[in-house]
Amino acid sequence: MPDRTSVANSVSNVVIQRLAPHLGPHVANMAMKTFSQKALGVQPDAAKSSDVPKLLDALRPMLTVMLGREHAEVVIGEIRGDFGSA
Amino acid sequence: MTSRWIAIFAASGVLVLAILDAIVVGRLTARASFWYYAVARTGLFALVAISAGAAAGKFRWWNEYVGRAWTLFLIAYSLLTCSEIARRFFPERPTAKELLVAVANLALIGAYALMARSLHAAGLHYFGSIAKQVLIVVLAAALAIALCKGSLLSEIASIRAGTPHIGSLISVLADMITFLLVAPLLLTALSLRGGQMFWIFAFLTAGTFGWIVNQASASVLGNLGLQEAVRTGRMAGFALACCFISAAALTQWLAAQRGTTGVRSHA
Fold first, then answer.
1. How many alpha carbons lie under 13 Å from residue B127 in its C-beta half-sphere?
2. Is the Cβ–Cβ distance between B204 and B248 less than 8 Å?
């Protein structure tokens, strides 16, 4: 998983890669786009590692509806783990 | 077990029941035929109820969005199981059966509506062009009207004559709504393709298509005078509906189980 010093759009790529096995690539991309704009006010590619906690808070309700609470927390934990202490 | 294997098992179940109906059941005595349908239909309804119950329990019943949908499926198919038993073994009490079916249909509408608007509830929308989405909705609406028009007109005539059949009216309206909801279910499945959730919505769409086959067999084949084919068509549609809704529930349960225990599915 990503190096924390890698390019900014790796946040987007990592989140999409984590969501895609569950939601498929189309909805994973859509979710990243929708929630980075809603929560961060930026395009997905502009999201930074420091934005990850806020982005995950925004993704949580969506994941809870689609996957259920427990499974959603596992996916969120995986993404959080990808960015270390983020 | 992967989603593909679940699909293969469900499709095999449908095929076996359709072949049995076409080849064997027509040759059975009235009593044997009665028991065949009693066991097969009650068993299939119960199968959906058990699968839906497992999925609902995994999502803490009414406490979560997905859990609410599966709880309603559980209620609907448990009532349909009871109605099937009432219809076969207590025919002198048609009101009980009618009441059970009416409540089951209301629960089914709720279950399908929750599933059909999952993406919207999650703050997302369908993938693909608006033209494609409109086309699918229009086709589903046309299908719903074409298949239910006769029954709906008959129910309206009953109301005008002062002899309304509330249970039948709810059944017809529930069928129409369910057939309409095949459009958002299909659009959700198409949006989710490539992901584990795709299979759940694809199976639900296939299950709803089963109810369409069940209804269409009566209206289309019946009008053509193919009574033997009507029976087999209805049974195939019924099996398609029950096997694939069970498959959807099982896939939902497995996805949650694997997601929370770290075991990956190889769909």
1. 19
2. yes
Residue B29 CB burial class (10 angstroms; 0-12, 13-18, ≥19): exposed
Question: Which residue, among B204, B211, B175, has the nearest Cα to B116 in the 3D structure?
Answer: B204
Test the A interface: residue of B115, B258, B260, B265 with most A CBs within 10 Å: B260
CA distance B249 to B255: 10
For the whole model, what pTM was predicted? 0.90
What ipTM is given for this predicted complex?
Answer: 0.87
CB contact under 8 A, B60 and A69: yes
Of A24, A38, A65, which is closest to B122 when you measure between CB atoms? A65
**What's the confidence (pLDDT) of residue B139?**
93
Q: Rounded to whole angstroms, how far apart are CA atoms B209 and B32?
A: 29
